[in-house]
Amino acid sequence: MLHYVTTNPGKVREAREYLGDDAVTAFDYDYPEIQSETLAPIAVDGARAAFDHVGEPVIVDDAGLFIDGLDGFPGPYSAFAEDTLGIERVGRLALDAGASRATFRCVIAYCDGEPFSATPDSVDRGRRGDDLAVEERATAATDDTVDATGVPVKLFEGAIPGRIVEPRGTGGFGYDPIFEHDGTTFAEMSIDEKNAISHRGRALAKFAEWFAER
Q: Which UniProt keywords apply (predicted)?
């Protein structure tokens, strides 16, 4: 059984779409989260801490909204910014600064205590230009395998480009109402529509393909 360390049932449902209903279970563990300007080190540290606690295969994810014109803010601090400022204020900061271009990113970290062999290129070469460019930049900035402490962690990153808009829609969670992709905010999409293109879904798709051969 694969333990997804999260208290968000939506994440577990999304993972089961890619891995199967019986393959994933939620695990509630409040691991200490390090501070970093990028997502990967946070996910790596969390996966190691979770595996040490659970003792069985785990996945941990870290995600954030990166606004180009605000130097990537809120990025890894997205949850803190949402709690302290609120999504509407974050959106207003971006729009007032003329900084509408943004990217949702997600890093999934897997750990089972065993080493990993090399895997194929994780970038979907069939994706259209703007999405591909975003993912190529994301992949270039993230090591596929990290084992500096002796506990290997495998990383899978997904990213989706969009822009910041005035809040629209009632679905989703977090920054979904202010993030628009192809003319529709994440909060205006159905769960299936969002999961099919989301940053987390793209990371999960890469992980599921690799995990099937694990």
A: Hydrolase
